[in-house]
């Protein structure tokens, strides 16, 4: 019989301003073992009867096996039935990876991309698994050969392949990769201070599924030195192709960057956001010398509009498609693209794409005090947009994290001179959380001080964000001691993944936040993968693992 643990929130940390009690409930499954040690939750879904469907991806480093565990649990996390779907490949299929994992109708769909040497073609294949009887089918969505690509430029899967290893299935429609972060050298023999790996001219691939799950779109960004070209596909919930097109801009690749794609609620329109560096924009005296370009594709029409950043700088924007409006949101600066002074907001008409409202909200005084302990005129660096939520009142809640890497030399001196190499350490520091009104005004912005990092395994650092009602929740692993800073602030510190406590931070309607320790590390037989949590209703699910041991954790808020 599965071990069922119910723990109701009690006050665990005494720190008057922040730590307060709020209700939560915890359930743990029984410990179990899989053939493959490495796995992570990629999808969870309500079964309509109080139970849940959990999908976990796995990969065996020695055997090369990879696939998906599909598990059906009841409301008490008792396993009802399970299915192991192994992704089998021929030796001619290279750089294969899952572009997206999602459900539509009664099927779990795994959309896979690879290059077939014999076919001399890039192929996109959908693996469909019926959720009721686990019957499986496969369907080719599209393919294109190297010869066909030559008319647009070139395309390589290697960047997307490595990005999928880091991130797993990401359905956000973004072309940018996680690797586009600032890197600093701590090597005393290297005077170069910082680089950014984003060159702006790499090929890429993106996928997005609309909220109602009645359509999905895939975009292929080709690499060319002469122009910029993107191939777009639109599919319905039965995997039938609704639209295929090539969108080309006679602007050199380095002067035009495709940022993301999104879909309308009805699944009939694709929105494409790009950033272009034009001669007219180059003559601007202040602000970024570029403009953003938004295009809407329907079955029989194409509409485009452009807008610039005035005297400000914006590195990137995220497109959010709602039923009655289109939003582009991001961070802006008054210095350059890699710093952040506040939050930019653009409200567009869904049909004409006319900009109805543009807002530049500087970070609040409270936010700056959260971050620096005093109100100062200073901009942030290294923010990576993570995800967003829409409240029941159509307010926008979104979050970001400070992400950057440092490299250091581990040089050694011996009889034969200097040896050694370099080590790279990836930092996942402060969480930025903000709430914007329906009209784009900043309601509040908060900075959660956090210092974490990793060299090889990012599963136990970073965080999972969720929303219940209008409240934001952030789950993090941290050490026992919460560091007290000046100005009545706190900081969550990194700890060994095998000795981490699980915390949840709640941000209320007025922006005040409180935190609770959910689990002591002594209570856990396995550490939980806090960066890969999945929300389902009012609950968030995490997978814990240590070696071959695994366990599911459900936190109901």
Low-confidence stretches: 1-20, 177-181, 183-201
Q: Shape from CA axes?
A: globular
Gyration radius, rounded: 24 Å
Oligomer: single chain
Mean pLDDT: 85
Describe the largest sheet. 7 strands, mixed
DSSP summary, beta strand count: 43
Q: Strand percentage, roughly?
A: over 45%
What is the percent of helical residues? under 10%
Per DSSP, the total helix count is 4
**N→C terminal distance:** 25 Å
Structural class: mainly beta
Descriptive notes:
There is one protein chain. A hairpin with a 2-residue loop joins strand 41 (about 535) and strand 42 (about 540-545). The chain contains 4 helices and 43 strands. It has about 550 residues and is mostly beta strands. The strands form 11 sheets. Strands 11, 12, 27, 28, 31, 32 and 34 form a 7-stranded mixed sheet that branches. Helix content is about 5%, strand content about 50%.
Short synopsis of the structure:
The chain is mostly beta strands.
Supply the key terms.
43 strands; 557 residues; 4 helices; 51% strand; 5-stranded antiparallel sheet; disordered N terminus; 7-stranded mixed sheet; mainly beta
SSE layout and pairings?
Layout: E1 25-28, E2 32-33, E3 39-46, E4 52-59, E5 66-73, E6 79-86, E7 93-104, E8 107-116, E9 121-130, E10 136-145, H1 146-149, H2 158-167, E11 182-185, E12 194-196, E13 204-209, E14 215-221, E15 228-236, E16 241-249, E17 256-263, E18 270-276, H3 279-282, E19 291-297, E20 302-308, E21 318-321, E22 326-332, E23 339-340, E24 342-348, E25 355-362, H4 365-372, E26 380-381, E27 383-390, E28 396-409, E29 412-414, E30 417-419, E31 422-436, E32 442-448, E33 450-451, E34 453-454, E35 464-468, E36 471-478, E37 483-485, E38 489-493, E39 501-507, E40 513-519, E41 534-536, E42 539-546, E43 549-556
Parallel strand pairs: 11-28, 33-38
Antiparallel strand pairs: 1-43, 2-43, 3-4, 4-5, 5-6, 7-8, 8-9, 9-10, 11-12, 13-14, 14-15, 15-16, 17-18, 18-19, 19-20, 21-22, 22-24, 23-26, 24-25, 27-28, 28-31, 29-30, 31-32, 31-34, 35-36, 36-39, 37-38, 39-40, 41-42, 42-43
